[in-house]
Amino acid sequence: MLGSGTGFTLLKKLFLLKNLLHFQILNRKGSCDERQFAVLLLHNPHTMACICRAAERALSCHPSDSSYLFLKLLTQAVTGLGSQLQYILSKDPKATVPVNFPVFLEALMLFTQHPSHVITRECNSLWAAFFKHDVISKNPDFILFAKKWIEISVPKVNRITRSFYIYFTTPLNCI
Question: Is the dihedral of CA 165, 171, 172, 175 positive or negative?
Answer without folding.
Answer: negative
